[in-house]
Specification:
alpha/beta; six-stranded mixed sheet; homodimer; 12 strands; DNA-binding; six-stranded parallel sheet
DNA sequence: TGCTGGTACTCAAACGTTCTAGCAGCTCGG
DNA sequence: CCGAGCTGCTAGAACGTTTGAGTACCAGCA
């Protein structure tokens, strides 16, 4: 049987003649090596784990699609799981990935790099963090993320140019944020431009963000923010709903800047001004990084930063007088 | 070692005392059975394959989320793959699922039940078709789908009540449609109500549907359809774009009925009238069917039909005079 | 006492691959 | 003409688990 293995795996030690014959009969029999046996023997499962904090977030849809396409192209299967924004579940799922012998891990973490750390410590296998620019810098993990600094700078700049003085940033709690640098940048740029800026911390779900926004929008007119920047179009939709609930019109009473440019954001009423991101590319490059590492190909960089470009549409306007 | 196996797997033939001790030391050592070895020995991988025709379709996002949640709850991992609307790729991926020893398959087929048939023939393992009401009736596979007949009846009824006389249904090519019954129903109901109805066949992608729509909307005013029914909100968005391209206003010049109620459809301008579907439940029940079959639990039905309820919003109005 | 039947446990085979060691047979240099 | 080194192939161990066969022990019964 060993000659067969050598023949099929393109390894030396077998004559061209035998190789061809083995190939032929394997094809005739429709032979497919048993993946479990291969995995058991080689300790490689040709499987990549994808652990997303929120599988129902449309943002990750294209990321996953790109990721899956690249993996499938190299014969890797994708095991997808969702941590449902639950740190404990994230750790638990990461451990099942270890038990399953997953070859590499792509992680959109709930917050913190604990899971990524444990994964890397116990397996030593390639890891990529999706959209977590500042996380696990001490860890030898890779990263693909959007340049949040430039993004926030663009958003604040745009709003300031329109004349806004009181801005708010809707953001995840600092300790759990996948990209705390955004909040830092927001405060820095706001200070530089001598504006007032408040950070509205909330869990990144519609259910949690709604009340937070209601509280802000219900403030007296002279202290209420006239523009809200969000870290996702997903949340921008929530802002739309909250504004409608408070009887505020967008953009007349409130300007909104989203982030991600989800396919439907252009179709909203009004069309959402947002920071467009090539989501699919995030997935594609993440998969590329992992595959390079798995194949021991030298990789140019461990940290891919993708640009966000401001798309001015209808949800931003000068503030109400 | 066998006693250990018996102890950990809750099987008889081992004393309570030993079982407890084994459990304890296993926990102390952080022991996790090697999944590949178990799979090799038992021919069960505790893995379920999910093969979607289009992973970037938001419709499947919640389906996948629900499906994954249920599977994870029972210790099954999910292997996700996208066939990209390619029949050949669908078959190929299905075969890699076989080689990987996947325990069950959930399939949102490109069209036809060839892949499902081959899967079931060679593995005999549980299968569920997602959203393919009329496919593979001869096969002993399960199905979760939306009641397309009732849905189309509601849509046509609503438009007829508004006064529309010329309707169009945007649909996949008949041979490849996951639910050809919709087209049949459309023609039947239109005939019953003495309306004129045309079926616009197109691949279910934005790129393909755009031109098809342009052709229809560019027709002379008196023969052009005044209302378009689509099989997805996804396509309804495309209709919005095509209408804008032809200078037609919705709903004044053209009424549109979607299907699915994607989260953003309510936020479109105008808000989309659509047939709401509980997508997550599709995934949840599909996973339930598979898990029941895997556990040899008797299952009440092999064919779950979920209702679609018409949500009248702003994209439908009486036809232009 | 001896036999039966059950319980608790141990041994070793088996799952389907990969991989190491070994064995022929051949070539080549001395 | 012999040993060293290479090539092509084979036998068998190994991966980590489950499982069927086998063994030791004990209770119950005649």
């Amino acid at each position: 049987m060993s000659a067969v293995s050598l023949a099929l795996n393109d390894r030396s030690g077998v004559s061209e003649d035998l190789r061809a014959r083995v190939r032929q009969t394997a094809a005739d029999l429709g032979y497919r090596p048993n993946t479990s046996a291969v995995a058991l023997r080689t300790r490689r499962s040709r499987t990549i784990g994808l652990l997303i904090r929120n599988l129902s977030n449309p943002f990750f849809l294209d990321v996953i699609e790109g990721f899956e396409t690249v993996c499938a192209g190299s014969g890797y299967a994708l095991i997808t799981a969702s941590s449902h924004y639950d740190l404990r579940r994230e750790t638990e799922l990461m451990r099942t990935f270890i038990a399953r012998g997953v070859d590499a891990l792509a992680l959109a973490p709930v917050g913190g790099s604990r899971a990524a750390g444990e994964w890397h410590r116990t397996t030593g296998r390639p890891t990529v963090l999706l959209n977590a620019a500042r996380l696990g810098r001490a860890l030898p993990v890779m990263r693909t993320h959007v340049d949040g600094v430039a993004a926030v700078e663009q958003a604040v700049g745009h709003l300031a140019d329109l004349g806004h003085r009181r801005l708010a940033l809707l953001s995840a709690p600092r300790r759990r944020s996948p990209d705390p640098e955004r909040a830092d940048t927001f405060l820095r740029v706001v200070a530089e431009r001598r504006l007032s800026g408040r950070i509205l911390e909330t869990e990144l779900t519609a259910a949690a963000a709604g009340p937070t926004l209601d509280a802000e929008l219900a403030r007296p007119r002279r202290s209420r923010a006239t523009a809200v920047i969000t870290n996702s179009d997903h949340l921008a939709h929530v802002v739309y709903a909250a504004a409608a609930g408070q009887g505020l019109r967008i953009p007349d009473d409130l300007s909104v800047v989203g982030h991600d440019d989800l396919p439907t954001s252009a179709l909203l009423a009004p069309p959402l001004t947002t920071l467009a991101v090539d989501r699919r590319t995030i997935g594609v490059t993440a998969a590329g990084l992992l595959l390079d590492a798995l194949a021991d190909r030298p990789t140019a960089t461990r940290d891919v930063s993708l640009p966000a470009t401001l798309l001015v549409r209808g949800s931003t306007a000068p503030p109400p007088r």
